[in-house]
Design goal:
With 194 residues, this protein is an all-alpha fold. It contains ten helices and no strands. The protein has helices at 6-33, 37-54, 58-72, 75-92, 96-107, 112-116, 127-135, 138-144, 147-177, 180-193. The radius of gyration is 21 Å and the shape is elongated.
Length: 194
């Protein structure tokens, strides 16, 4: 890419990274819970809503969601737990991925990872329920008080949408540049320059 097209380059790169993140989640959900295309599309919409309400990038939410889907075997439970993870992460300042892994372990009976995050759930019959109650609404409250982060998320989404429009043309360009005819012409040109 020429340097003067840096914003277009950034948009295309953001779109490619988002497409990769979506593909990895879709693959993970198919493998872990047998998700259908319709369920994956519904999950993407849920993640989009989480992103907008919590002001956390979808590229951070998808791996957390995937962790929780693997841990629970359920899209419904993974959605619930992802929302809890967003709240806990916002309230504690802990990384969303780390919180999601700890919640996944707690769902399967081990609360040690939650304790290591400073979340006192020892001896609690329903540690997930306690966290849900204790931290409910924290991610939205944090998002509402940080307009810069909210704008970052919105502008990031706009950038990805612009990039999505460019990706087909970039793929066509890459196909053309890697064609045998063009490669032969480049080789001839470079040989004539030497």
């Amino acid at each position: 890419f020429p340097s003067h097209d840096s914003s277009l380059q950034a948009s295309a790169k953001a779109a490619a990274e988002d497409a990769k993140s979506q593909a990895l989640l879709a693959n993970g959900l198919r493998n872990s819970v047998g998700a259908t295309n319709a369920q994956i599309a519904a999950t993407e919409e849920s993640i989009r809503q989480m992103q907008l309400s919590a002001s956390v990038a979808d590229d951070q939410i998808r791996p957390a969601f995937d962790n929780l889907a693997r841990a629970t075997g359920s899209l419904t439970e993974a959605t619930r737990l992802t929302n809890i993870a967003l709240d806990v992460s916002a309230a504690t300042g802990k990384d969303l991925g780390t919180v999601s892994i700890a919640l996944g372990k707690a769902v399967n009976g081990s609360t040690t990872a939650l304790s290591k995050l400073g979340l006192n759930v020892k001896g609690v019959a329903d540690p997930i329920g306690l966290l849900e109650q204790r931290f409910q609404g924290a991610s939205e409250a944090a998002a509402e008080t940080d307009p810069f982060q909210r704008l970052n998320i919105v502008f990031g989404e706009i950038q990805e949408q612009v990039g999505q429009a460019l990706l087909p043309e970039l793929n066509n360009l890459a196909d053309w540049l890697s064609s045998p005819e063009v490669q032969a012409n480049i080789e001839t040109l470079t040989q004539n320059l030497s």
